[in-house]
Every structure is written in C-alpha cells, then in structure tokens.
Amino acid sequence: MTAATDATLFPQVPATADAVLDGLDPEQREVATALHGPVCVLAGAGTGKTRAITHRIAYGVRAGILQPASVLAVTFTARAAGEMRGRLRQLGAAGVQARTFHSAALRQLQFFWPRAVGGELPRLLDRKGPLVAEAAARCRLRLDRNELRDVTGEIEWSKVTQTVPADYPAALVKAGREAPRDPAEIGQIYATYEQLKRDRGTIDFEDVLLLTVGVLQDRHDIAEQVRAQYQHFVVDEYQDVSPLQQRLLELWMGDRDNLCVVGDASQTIYSFTGATPDHLLDFRIRHPRATVVKLVRDYRSTPQVVHLANGLLAGARGRAAEHRLELVSQREPDAEPVFTEYADEPAEAEGTARRIRDLIAAGVPAGEIAVLFRINAQSEVYEQALADAGVPYQLRGAERFFERPEVREAGVKLRGAARFGGNDTLLAGAAGLPSEVRAVLSDMGWTDRPPAGSGAVRDRWESLAALVRLAEDFARARPAATLADLVAELDERAAAQHAPTVEGVTLASLHAAKGLEWDAVFLVGLTEGMLPIHHARTEEQIEEERRLLYVGITRARRHLALSWSLARSPGGRPSRGASRFLGGLRPGSRGAGHRRGTGATGGVERGSGSAAPGRPRRTHRSPARCRVCRRTLTDPGEMKLMRCEHCPSELDEALYERLRDWRAGQAARTRQPAYCVFTDKTLMAIAEAVPTAAEDLAVIPGVGRRKLDRFGADVLAICAGEEPEGEPGGGAAGGAEGAAENSSEK
C-alpha cells in the first residue's frame, strides 16, 4: 500500500553496479555491500529493510559477485515474495529465486520425489478443515466452527514444532500452551487426520516442509545437489521462523555460512503458529563472526507516530524487549495521534467512518486509509458504517489481484486489442495508451464514476479502475509505451504477484496488516479483553499482544487514530475500559510508556572469531538527539531540554512549578542567581522525564555529578510528590561552580 510516484512505480534500471547503491543510507549501504559470510540485519519498522536486502542481492549480481541462479531469497508470504521479485527485476537482477519457504520446498520436492521415493508426489490439500472435521467425526467428537479452526491450528503448530500426535499433550505442557479442548482428544484427532491423509494419498502444507527435510536428511546426494545450486541465502522476517523452517534452512546451507537474515524481535506476532524470535536473537551466538547491522532510521512514520511506538515498547518485558530498537523518524513533524473514547461500538464505527470521510474530503486517497482491529469478527460494524457513509472499502485477505475473474478477463481483452491494433473497433477514436485502456475496459463495465454502494459490483469496478490507474502511471513514466508494452508489463507483474493498488479503505486484522503501510491508520476496539485478548494470560502472551499493537501503530505514515468503546451496544452497561497498553501514552494517563531512551541505536558491529558472544564492546558517545523526533541537537537550550523547541511536550506543569519554587528557595539561601541552581530548560526536562531514581536524573543534561550530589535527593523527593528532606550544602564555592556550569544558558 506504499504511495509511489511514476518514477518509483516504473524506475529505470540502474546503469551500473555502483548505481544500485545510490540513495541508500549508511546502514543500508553496509547491508548491501556485506556480501560474504553471515550477516544479521536488525531492522525496525519502516526502516527500509526490503530496500536494503533487494539492493544487496542486486548489487552482488550486477557486480558479478553473485550468480542470480545461486541466490535463494525466502520470506513468509506470497505477496512479500512477489514484491521482492518485482524490485529485483527493476534493479536488473532478474533470475534470482525469491519465494516463500513452502513454495521453495514444494518445487524441490516435486523435482526430487520420483528419484527419492518413486512415482508422483501425493496430491496437496487445498484446505485442512474438511479433513480435520472428518477426523473428529471418526473419533466421535463434534467440533463447531470455532473449535474446528482452533484444533486445525493446534495440528499446524504440532507439525511445525515437529511434534507427533502421541507427544502432543506433553509438548503442550512444555511450551506453556493452552489447548482449546482436552489435549488427549486433540492428539486423537491429530493422529486420525494423519491416517486419513495417508489412506487417501494426500499431503498438507506442513508436510511439504517435513518431507523436504526428510529427503535432504536421508539422501546426501540430493542435499549436495541442492547446495550446489544455491550458495547464497537471504531470509526475510527471520523473527517468524519456526523450528521446522530453521531445520530446512540448515539443510539447504550445509556447512556454509553465506547467509543474510533480516528481522525485528519487536514484530514477533505469530508465536501461536510456532514462530519464535530465538533464532534471530541467537544468531550471533551461532555465528560469532557475523556482521550485525541495525536499521533504526524510520522513513515511514512521522516523529509523533514513532514517539508513540517507542513509548509503547518502553514498557515491554522479556527477551524481545531487551533487544528492541529505538526508531528515529526521518520525516517532518505532522499531526499528533488522536485518542478517542466512545459510548458503544456502533458509535465508534460511525465516528471512525465520519473521520475517514473527512480525510478523503481533505485529499487523502481512500486506498491510503486503513481500519485495523484485533479479530476479523470486529469488521462487520465498520463495513456497515463505511457503506452508510458512502466510503468505498476492501477487506484484506481476499483473492490475489491477478487471479480475480475481472482482471483475467481484462488481460484477455487488452491482449486482443494490442494484437489487432487499429483494426479493433474498441480503439476507434482512442488517442494515447490510457485512452485505449479506458476504451477496452469500458466494454467490461468500467465508467468514470464508481457505482453506488458496495458488494461485488463495486469490487469489480475497483479492480478495473486499478488497471486504468496503472496504465496512466505507465504512460507518464514511459510516454512512448504502446498497448503491447503495457500487456507485457502486466504479464511480468502477474508472474511476480506485483499488484497495483486497489482504491478503497482497507479493513484488516492487525495480523493481516503486517508488512503493509498507509497514510492514515485507525486502530479500533482497543479495550481490555480485546487487546490484550482475553485469553492472553501469561507474561509472554501479554507481550505478544503489545507487539501486535506496535505493529498496528507503525503501519501509519502521517495520521494515527486510536479508539475504544465503553459498551458493546447502545444503552449497554459501560463496563469496558481502554487497553492497559495505552497507559502512559494517551493524554492524562500514567504508565510504563514514560520510560525512554533504552532501546538499541543504529550502527554496524563487525564479527570476530575470537570475541565471545555477548562480550561488551567499546561504544562511542552519540550526538545529542531530540527524544521525540531524534533530530541531532546543536542548540544548548534544546540539548538541555533533550528535545526540539517545537516538538510536543509531556511537561507536568504542577511539578514544574514546584521545582521552580524549590529552586527559588535554594537560590535565596545560597545568594546566587536561580539559573545557577538549575536552568529553566533543565527544570522543564526534569518535569517532562519525572525521574524516579538517581541514575535517571543523572542523564538529564544540566544536572551532572556535582548537582546530583547537592540537589538530587531534593529533586527526586519533589518528583515523587514528597517534601524535600533538608537543605544541601552550598556556599560561595558551590555558587561559583553552578555559575560556571550554566554560563552557556541564562
């Protein structure tokens, strides 16, 4: 959903290998040029990780260091793999294999099955549900729709963690996982499901990985053939790797270490499927010589959005939290996030629809707006509210763009028109490529104005409108392009699953929104019991829910709205409250969100074979940066305040006045100017940070060790709402020291 200009939609292929590196920031360039040995890229949301790794592959190919056919890039969704192939093609690196784990494994399994096992590969199941339901019936167990989904999920988790049916109950306890029903019953259904597959000669998607692992483990000749083919590996979204996928990756690699992994532990939101960030966090332990690059420059979101995202993670706990990245926005400041409480869910949906309509009227395209919720069942009320407001929308998770019937039909008609050229009556009177496309698609029902309402008719129109816009962008980027050129472009995009944007507000779950971005994002239904979801009970589960909200926040470029409702229906008892995660983030609330500045900063670490994993490394003093927008500070006053003058403040006005009163008393007793105790800017910084310990106070510019010793106990007492215990020492010497320390700002 990234907004793009004609130049970025249809860029010119870089002329040279070095030109591939143009426009990369220093850390991205480090990624692109680190082509040998293990590389770990810790990439925060919006920091350009896909750009970095695609330019890395393209630079290696264009420089002759990597052979296209020897590179295998794997990720987790067909959409992400398609986007990667599209970018590589635009960079002049066609021929590189960019696939999902399942797609890459299936190709290998289909190729080697006759040789390894004999005969044809068993038929692949499209869906597990019906067979799981039959297995349950064979076990004399009845599953409703929700139970069927949950049991199917348990079977998938068991398989990616390589747990056999007999071991399922014990594995459940070991993993601290809560079963949706009696574990023995699920184990029985799982075993029957596996037997039904064997009886009918079918396999499922998890079997594709399991069987590929089995073939590579048992047949060393086949494993060596695969390793001879692929010598360089790139793994995107590495925090989502399951134990089974990690095992497959190890078998692909053998004893080599030409591996580049990219991930962010703070975006681990699929642990229920068996994903774990441990492989990412332990990468340096397994590969002591690895180069580690941290990408923290956020090109997607405004400082206000980034500030909120950093504040949310500041309250996180656990291992992933210890490795969180502190994002630094590279965009100009914009609107503050909006927090809204509604009386009930319909009111929340109607209010959201009104705000969306206002944004569209102000010039924000509908396709650049998203409404994100915790579970899909929440979408219905928003679908109705948007339809009532006359706002077009699309549900995320529908069929792929190029597989839609109307898009296939349009491709046939455009191909025919390109073949017949001027002899096609549809093109009579059409001048220029966009006009020709409009003429062809008009025959399918496309019009300048969208149809009223929603539903299938509107969905069909949106698909055709997306093709019209694509033709217009293509013609602007390549004025001499013909209809045949456009058809060729569509064919290449279809092969890469590089779809154009369909206009319409996106409705999606937070899980489905991963990897996407919009100008405006509405996070709705943020109540206790929904986020975190009511069945999240352990600290680990609660922290995953926090990361889910983090993913939602970081989807927004400019506009971000967060809302919740007190009751489910009009007139209902207002028994619900805002999510605990909003404590300390929304105005007037207090919570963990006030902790700042503890995340990892960007940079590069070079691996060393002699360095023990985890050994402290020498660090360099970083320049002073604004704690809101992260801009480098040079003004002494701003450096003391730890933020730009224009950036939003969280000043506790009452605390600030108490500190000023206390300072006046100190100044009178020591007979020195008030600024020699603490400057106004330092007091403001204290009143914004509200330190609770000496180490927190010490890092505020303008405090220093001497003033911490003299005034620290008093200041901390005032911050805690208590009376200062007594008067610290002072005198002429102390006053002279204070005046010298503060001579740069009065």
Which percent band covers the strand fraction?
5-15%
The best one-word shape is globular
Which assembly state applies to the chains in this document?
single chain
Largest sheet: 7 strands, mixed
Strand order of the largest sheet: 3-2-6-7-1-8-17
The structure class reads: alpha/beta
Q: Mean pLDDT, as a whole number? A: 83
How many beta-strand runs? 17
Number of helices: 30
Q: Report low-confidence residues grouped into runs of 5 or more.
A: 1-7, 592-598, 610-623, 728-746
**Gap from first CA to last CA:** 49 Å
Helix-residue proportion:
40-55%
- Taking all Cα atoms into account, the compactness measure Rg is 29 Å
Q: Can you walk me through this structure?
A:
The protein is of the alpha/beta class and 746 residues long. Helices cover 45% and strands 10% of the residues. The chain contains 30 helices and 17 strands. α3 packs across α4 (49-62), α5 crosses α23 (483-496) and α11 packs across α12. The protein is globular and about 95 Å long. 40% of the residues are buried. The model is unreliable at 1-7, 592-598, 610-623 and 728-746 (pLDDT under 50).
